[in-house]
Structure formats: C-alpha cells, structure tokens
Amino acid sequence: MASVNPFNLSDSEEEAERRPNDTVDTERSPSDGAPGPPPGNPFSPPADAEPPTLLLSSNRTSPSGEGMSASAAATSAMAGSSEARVSVDTIAAQLLRDQYILTALEFHTELLEAGRELPRLRDYFSNPGNFERQSGTPPAKDQAAGNKRQDWTTGGSLQPDRAGSISTLDSLDFARYSDDGNRESDERVAVLEFELRKAKETIQALRANLTQAAESEVPSQERKNFKSSPEVQEPIRPLEKRALNFLVNEYLLKNEYKLSSITFSDENDDQDFELWDDVGLNIPKPPDLLQLYRNCGSPLPSPRDVADVSVGVDFGDLPGNCIAQETPRKLDLTQQQQTEVVQELEYQISLLNNEKQSLAEQIKKLQRCVCAYISGLAEEQRLKVKLSPAFQQALLSFCRMCSDSRLGAEVSRIADSEESVMLMLGRCLPHIVPNVLLAKRERMVTHLCQELIPLILCTACLHPEPKERDQLLHILFNLIKRPDDEQRQMILTGCVAFARHVGPTRVEAELLPQCWEQINHKYPERRLLVAESCGALAPYLPKEIRSSLVLSMLQQMLTEDKADMVREAVVKSLGIIMGYIDDPDKYSQGFELMLLSLGDPSERVVSAVHQVFIPAFAAWTTELGTLYTALIPSLLARIEKLLTQGEHGLDEHKLHIFLSALQSLIPPLFAVVLQNAPFTSRAKLHGDIPAIEVTRFPRPASPLQDVATIIGSREMLSALLLLYDHQLEHEGTTGWESLLWVVNQLLPQLIEIVGRINVTSTTCVHEFSRFFWRFCRTFGKIFTNTKVKFFFPPPHQIMCSTHHSVDASAGNGILTKATVPIYATGVLTCYNQEEDRKLLVGFLEDVMTTLSLSHAPLDSLKASFVELGANPVYHELLLTVLWYGVVHTSALVRCTAARMFELLVKGVNETLVAQRVVPALITLSSDPEISVRISTIPAFGTIMETVTQKELLERVKMQLASFLEDPQYQDQHSLHMEIIRTFGRVGPNAEPRFRDEFVLPHLHKLALANNSQAAESKRIDIATQLFEAYSALSCCFISEEVMVNHFLPGLRCLRADMEQLSPEHEVILSSMIKECEIKVENRGMSDAQGSMSIASSLVGEDAKTKFLSKMGQLTTSGAMLANVFQRKK
Questions:
Q1: In whole angstroms, what is the distance from residue 156 CA to residue 174 CA?
Q2: Which of 843-852, 858-867, 1053-1062 has the lowest mean pLDDT?
C-alpha cells in the first residue's frame, strides 16, 4: 500500500483515511534496499550530533484527539518516495497551523534532545500569548471532523493569563473532547513537566549570575599579585572559602564538636551554615569531608576518557507499522495519584516562580542602590567648593565604610516601604534567632548586636515618633561596649545610609546629639566612633552646622583627647570638613587647627595632617583665592620669626613643622599655577596626549597630594604640562599672575631664609634640601634651570664674594651659611642627566677650592658631603670631586680633600674604599707637605673603625705605623696630637686585636715620651689628648696581658705628668690605676670574671662623681683644657 503524506491532506481527508484502518502499512519490501535512513531524510542529525532518541511509547495526543505523535508523523513522512520528502520546518508549520499543540511540543522536545532547535517552535512555545484562553466555547467533535478548523486565536475577547502552566492548560481545555480521564491527566502532567523545566531553567540562570558575581569577588590587588608572581599560590576565592566553611561546620556537628561548631560559626558570622544555597546557588553540594578524604587518593578519570553517550533508534531501521500500530500505553497510576502529582508539580512551580521573582527583585534593588549612592552624593549636596570629582572621591575614601558583606549590604540600604521592611526582616531574622538562642558568650552577644544594626536603623528611619527614634539611635550608639574596627565601620555605614535617607534636618536633630553624648566617653573606641562619624556625616549636614557645631566638637577632641588613634581620626574628619566648608570666616580657625595638629606629639596624627587635612585645607583656600596670598605667606612669616628669635638657639622642631607644611602645599600650588595659566583654555583632551613620566613628580604622601587628583585626571594634567613647558620655553611668564608670584616673591623670600640658616644645623639643612628638591621636581626642569638657579649665586660669584667678604672669624660669609649645601643637595640633584651631574661636580670642586684658598671653615662643604653621602648614588660623584682635590696643585686644597675622605668613608662600601679611597690616601700620605700627610690620619683612623677586610686593615696599619716609627716624624707635635686624638675616637669601636696590639702600645710609648718633653706647652697638649684617649679606652674590655704591659704603664706615665700639671686629676688617675691593679690581682685568682671594664667600677661613689665632673670639664675646649693643666705656682 502506497504511503500517504498526511501533511498534504485536509482534515476531512485525514478522517476518511483513518476510518477503514487505524494503522498505516508502512512495512518495507525487499526492494526498499538495506535498512537505514533514506538518503534525504530531513530528520537525520548531522554527523557530529548525537542521534535523536525516539519515544516509542508516547501516548500524547493532539488537541483534536488524533493519536498521531511527532514520531508517527515523521515516520509517515519518510515512508514515501524521495520526491515526497518534507523539511522539518514544514512539518512544524503544519502541526502549528492545524493546532496539534502537544504533538508540536513533543516534536520540539525531541528536536532539542537531538541538538537541533527549530526557531519556529522555539518562538511559538516561548510566547505566552499563544496560550491565552479564548472566551468562546470549544468546538464540537463533529464540527472538527467535517469542516476546516478555524483559527482559534482570532475569536472572542482575551483574558489575561494567570500563570504559565495554568494558562497553558486552560488554552487546551476547549479542544479536549476525549472522555479518557487518564489521557487528560497525562496531558496535564506533560504540560506541567514542561512548565517546571522552563521555570527551573530561569531560576538556574539567575543563580548562575549571582554565583558568578560571588566568584568574581577576588580582590583586584590579590589578582594582580598572583599574575605578577605565578610561583605564589593562587588566593582562595570567596565561593571556595564558603564551601569549605560549610563542610567543616557540617563535620563538627556530625562528630559532636558542638562548642567548636558554635565558635566556628561566630568567627564566620557572614555565612549561614543552615542552608547550602547560602554558599552558591547553582553549585551542587559536594560530599562531606570524610567522603572527600576517602576519595582523595582515588585517581579521577581523565576528561579524554569520558564521553556522553545516548542511544537512539534510526527512523530507517524501524518496521513500517511499529509506530502506527502502537496502542496508547495504559497508565499505572490511578486518577487520584495523578491528581496528587499534578498538585505537587504546580506547588513546585509556584515556589520556583516566587524564588525567581525574589531573586530578580533583589538584583534590581542592588543595582538601584548602587546607582542611588553614586548619584546621591552629587545631587544631594550642591557644594560651593568646586572640588574635582577625583579629589572628592579620594577625600571621602578616608571615611571607613563597610558594604562588601551581607550585613554591610543590609546596613547600607534602608528599607523605604512596608514591603521592603518585610523583606528585610525575612533576610535578617534567620541570622538573629540562632544567636539569641546561643547568646551565652560575649562574642555571640557582640555578633547578635551586629545583626541588630539594620533593624534598628530601619526602624529609626521609618518610625513616626521622634522620642522612639531618639531612643533607637541611642541604642545604636551604645549597642556595643567597645566596638572594633569592623563594627565601627558597620555603624558608620548605617549612619550614612540613615543620613542619606532622612535628609540634613533630621541628621542634625537626631544623629548629632548622639555623637555629642559620646564625646567624653571613657572608652576610646566610643570616642573614635564619634570622631569618624563627624567626617562620614559631613556631606549630609547643613552647611551652618558643618562650620560651627561639628567643627567645635572636633576641635575640642583634638585638644583634649589623650588617645592617639582618636586624634588621628579627628584630623581626618577635620580634613573632610574642610573639603565641604564654605564659610570664609572659618579660614583662621582652620589655619590654627592645622598648626595645632602639626605640633601633635604622635607621628600618626602628624601623618594624617599631611595626608588629609593640609590637602583639603589647601583645596578650600584655592577656592577662596588665599592659597598663595595668605596661607603660604603666613607660614613663611612664622619661619622668619623663628629664625629671628633663634639667634642663640633655633627651635628646630617648630622649623620642621612649618617647613613640612610648606612642603605639603607644593602640589596644590603647582595645580593653581596650571589652572590659572594663560593656556588653560587651550588644553584639549582629544588627540595623542603622551603619558606622564613616572618620575615626573615626587611620590605623593597620599592620593590627595597627587597633582593629577587635584587637577581631575592624568589626561588633563598631561595636556596642561605640554602647554606649561612650551609656555616657559618660548613665551615666558607675562600675564601669569600665580607663577609671577612664585618667581618674584616666594623664591626670593626662600633664598633669604636659607641665607640666615647656620650650616651646622644639620636638621635645618636636611629639611630645606628636601623642600627645594620637591619644589624643583614639581615645577619641572625648565622652571628649575631658568628661574630657580638664577637666585643662587654661580660658582664664580661665590669665589669673588669669598675673596672680598668672607670673614672666617665672624662666620657671616655666604659660604659659612646653608646656601651652599642646600643649593648642591636640593637644587642640583633634582635631575640626574649627565649635564646635571657635571654641573654638580663642578660646583663642589669650585666650593672646595674657594674655601681652601680662603682659609674659610669647611662646614658648608662638609654639610654637602654628609647630605649627598647618605645616598649611595652620589658616592662615585663625590670620589670624583675628592680626586680633583688630591691632584690639585695647592697644598691647601689637598689638605681639604684628605679631611673630606673622613666623612665619606663611613657610608661607602668596602670595595670603593679599597679601590678609590685608600689609594688616594696613600698618595696624600706621601705628599711633600707635612700638613697634607697629617690631614690623612683621621681618614685612616675611620677606615680602621669601619672596615673589616684584613688586607685593607693591614695596609692602613702599616701607614699609621710609619707615621709613629719613622724618625722624620719624631718631633712632629701636630702629627702626634692628631694620632692621639684619632686613637681616642676610633679605639673603642675598632677591632680588639688592632686596639690591643697597636693602639694601646703606641699610646704607652707616647705617654712615656711625653714625660721627657722639654716644652711645657707641648707637654700640656699631649697630656690633654692622652687623658681623653685613656678615658675613652677605659670603657673597653682589655686583656690581662695588655693591661699589665701597656695600659697600666701608660696610665702611670700620664699620672706622672698630672702630678706636676694638675694634682686634682692625679687623684682620678690614681683611683683608675688602683682599680686596674685590683682587677689584675682578682684575675690571677679566678678567671671567671672575664675582661674588665674600668670606667664602670671606680672606687666609691665620690670618686665616680669627681671623675665624671672632671671629664665634663675636660671636654669643653682646647684653651680651657690647657688652663686646667697649668702648673700651680
């Protein structure tokens, strides 16, 4: 019998075809060929797809009651000749057109399982409008058999659908005319299964989005660190941490470790251990820890060894009548059981729909909260202070907020409706109730209090009664006795959310009184909360309150609070207040607060001043126009006054305070110069703007001191810097008011101040050097070369002024002040190009030559070497300068070079000492001039004190021995004085072997020779130096042999001189000798006492006091020492 294509027939023809025989004979004849799918079978999947699975026992029916399934229709279609083949899309179109809805649904499902999704069926079943119920009545059975079926979607008015599954069932009710109850139940089960699968897919997608967001919460800094250091283990992800926490807690509970479980839960209070979905919504729960441990040794199958396999039946292999003759499968379940199944599926669908709706609403609210927070700060406060957005964001970053946890997120968004309150209670109560039941320990009580914060804030925000609101806020601030950092951040986050929600008036009336009550609390943590609250609430307060009450509160805490951490928070909050204040009358108060906080004894408070307060205060004065007209001139005036008052003793601490404040004002000053420049309006952000060099600006102390942050962006700063350099190089400073002030007023005043500083004040030199270095680096190389260097005298002017005006005795010449070291170390070292280094070398060479030839003090040159020598980068450069002095034709310059080596040796590594320093000193030690040779002795002594290489020490030892033992130096009084002075300085720190075998024996010889010195003045000088040397060496550990052979004999020789020169000092020496003899005798009886320390064991307290008092007298000056040792007449 020839097969008939059912899709080419009308409804009536199909009925007529079906009457004589319910089955279609599709049995294949032997001539049909080998079994298998026909060549053009449209249902054959592609080669790389899985074979479709054929549902042979399906009894799903179409709405009109025909028993044709999708498989049957497909089989019929393939049974015909190759000319009658039909495409899959045609079959789908015919099924939908004739309203075989369930058949089309089953066909769609089979295609999906085969991996071949049909767009027509997908679009149809994803559109709920296709299943809305028609208000008319279903067609009768006989009408459906005789006539063409009318389109059921065109008649009657439509009702809005109630739910997905219900609407689908309702849309099929009118077409169901079968009396078979089992078939009806099966249809409902099929539809509900489809709806359930669709709902689960939607929920799974939402869960995937949430879990993906949770997995991506690894901090960017940790990600960066891991990428840059692949050998370091990858940091644990939040999702992994929560999963492990859940499994550990489950293990503890199963094994009766209840207390450990409770403690573990307390330490992970941001996780719900009752529900696995709290870990990851779309992550299946792994086996417990015991099962994981038992399976950890089993090798996992390789992904290549695993393949997904499914079994299907090829349409071509089926017998022709296997589907057509299949009778509907009898249901095993009773009607009541199927009804229960339907109800259960409907209940599951409703739960999943509710969860889907809740998750979608939560995501929407979170997005809304983020947007509201970002835009709220900008729109709620119309600030008159025009801070750049980058600067404002950096300023507010010092407010310590917490919103990256579950509780933080709850606190940061306050419910604004009854529905939101209910949802918030539903989220929070499950975390509160377990803690209430277990709140027996302090940790649990504290955690419970934390969980109550969002409830308190929400209620205080929405409650209509002011008294109740006040009571609730009082509870909030007193909830935790001593809140730690995390808890304070949580409360602060809630206060900010409250302020953002209720507005400035209620913040002033309800929140500020709570802060005022805690201002003198006995616990510093509570006072710290008040200090941080003032800064966090600043953007949400009325401007009058900001500049009056809040400012007064913070000022009181700054002056009265004894806790460093509280004053630090006060200073940061003051900085935030200064960023939002707009009352010009408060400038003087702000200036005094800045000076007060800079004088704080705590380093952390002073650091906060430079990081937050001064940049914010400078931003405000910039808007007032008083940065360079009032603020900087006020600091300069205080420095000048300090120098005037400190003629006999400069207060270096106050100078440091004022100068450090000036240094912190350099970035905002440069930003003002750029923003008020003639070219500012021409700055464009489009086009190729080169990136700013990393070393263009000094490293800022905080983001608020970054010039790019003050300007607004690095792109804008880069564009302005290009125009700035061009303007300086080609067009000058005409009409540039701010830069003209810097050039004509600031720089001359600074140079004058530098000229008044004494060069011996190392601290002042260092502070001013740092200031000029940062100033020149900030304003750029062109400005430094064309403007700054112009105010410092060039080397040839220094030489001229030296010859005519340097008065070494008065010490008021230019070279005896701090101008030279500050210019050398603060200006000439700003840039490190070859020409810059040459300029520095030439300047130092000229200064060394000028000072030497003028017989001027070397203090300015020494200060330059000390400041530069602290940085190893300049060691080679300084050695180059000294070598210039070594080979100079003037003996005075060579002497200066030899003395400068003493300063340089301590900071230079031993390789440079061996290769550059010692050869230069050896050269100078053979100089024709005896004064040059004597000048090398201090440097040789410093080498003996600092170097550890034995070969090097031997070379230095040999050179010093030549000075002492060579007959030509026998009567060189200056040489002996220098050697004794050097031995007394380096002996206590030198190597013990060098001290015992070289220093003490030669001191003994010098003391012995001094007894026979005929010239009394020389004898007094040598005795003075010997007494100081022996006093210093008496504190060292000396072996018994050296004590007996050299130390005691040297002291006796010195005592012989003292008997004639100063009998009162002879008493001290006699007590020292007696004590040494006692120690030697005791050492002979017992070696257990070890080496002896002379100075710490004088006989009797009177002897100690007398010795120390005399030592104080002997360390004053050479003239006074000589008077002490004058022979009594």
A1: 13
A2: 1053-1062
For the stretch 912-917, contacts whose Cβ atoms lie closer than 8 Å and that sit 24 or more positions apart, written own/partner, are: 912/875, 912/876, 912/879, 913/943, 913/947, 913/952, 914/949, 914/952, 916/879, 916/883, 917/879, 917/943
Euclidean distance between CA atoms 515 and 494, whole angstroms: 14
8 Å CB contact between 1028 and 984: yes
Distance (Å) of CA 484 to CA 372, 511, 605 = 29, 20, 20
- Residues 858, 851: Cα–Cα separation, whole Å: 7
**In the numeric block, which tokens belong to residue 271?**
């996780």
Q: What is the DSSP letter of 76?
A: H
> How confident is the model over 962-1013, as pLDDT tens digits?
988 888 887 888 888 999 999 889 888 888 888 888 888 988 888 888 888 7
Report domain extents, the chain.
Answer: 1-134+161-216+314-350, 236-275, 872-970, 973-981+994-1129
Exposure b/e, 449-477, CB count within 10 A at least 16 = b:
bbbbbbbbbbbbbbeeeeeebbebbbbbb
- Beta-carbon count within 10 A of 1105 CB: 11
Largest Cα–Cα separation, the chain: 161
In angstroms, the CA 35 to CA 32 distance is 8
Q: Which residue type, as a one-letter code, is found at position 525?
A: E
User: Scanning the structure block, which residue is given the tokens 């009177």?
Assistant: 1102
Q: What Å distances lie between residue 500 and 350, 404, 531, 546, 964, CA to CA?
A: 37, 19, 19, 16, 84
Q: Which of 502, 579, 493, 578 is nearest to 529 (CA)?
A: 493
Take residue 182 and report the two structure tokens written for it.
Answer: 């089992």
Phi, psi of 817 (to 5 degrees): -100, -175
Q: What is the pLDDT of residue 61?
A: 37
Site of tokens 């080397």: 795
DSSP string of 833-861, one letter each residue: SHHHHHHHHHHHHHHHHHHHHTT--SHHH
Radius of gyration of the chain (CA): 47
CA dihedral over 567, 571, 573, 574, signed as positive or negative: positive
Give, as one character, the DSSP assignment of residue 134. Answer: B
User: CB neighbours of 353 closer than 8 A, spacing ≥ 6?
Assistant: 163, 164, 199
Cα separation, 636 vs 749, in Å, equals 8
β-bridge partners, 1092 = 1038
Sign of CA dihedral 520, 524, 527, 531: positive
Task: Give CA–CA dist 84/91, Å, rounded.
Answer: 12
Residue type, 72: A
In the DSSP assignment, the letter for residue 1087 is G
pLDDT tens digits along 1044-1091:
888 888 888 878 877 777 777 677 778 778 777 777 777 666 554 444
Q: Among candidates 536, 526, 596, 595, which has minimal Cα distance to 565?
A: 526
What whole-number distance in Å separates Cα of residue 397 and Cα of residue 1052?
Answer: 72
Cut 0.90: pTM above it: no
Measured between its terminal Cα atoms, the distance across the chain in Å is: 158
**What's the token pair of residue 529?**
């909360």
DSSP class per residue in 391-421: HHHHHHTTS----SSHHHHHHHS---SHHHH
- Compute the distance between CA of residue 189 and CA of residue 195 in angstroms, rounded to an integer: 10
Residues in the chain: 1129
**Best CA proximity match to 568, nearest among 617, 538, 515, 607:** 607
Cα dihedral 736, 739, 744, 745, rounded to 10, equals 130
Euclidean distance between CA atoms 114 and 109, whole angstroms: 9
Please name the residue ranges forming H helices in 870-949: 875-886, 891-905, 910-912, 918-925, 930-935, 937-946
Number of H-type helices and E-type strands within the chain: 58, 0
Give burial (CB, 10 Å; 0-12/13-18/19+) of 372. Answer: middle
What torsion do the CA atoms of 499, 502, 503, 508 make, to the nearest 10 degrees?
-70
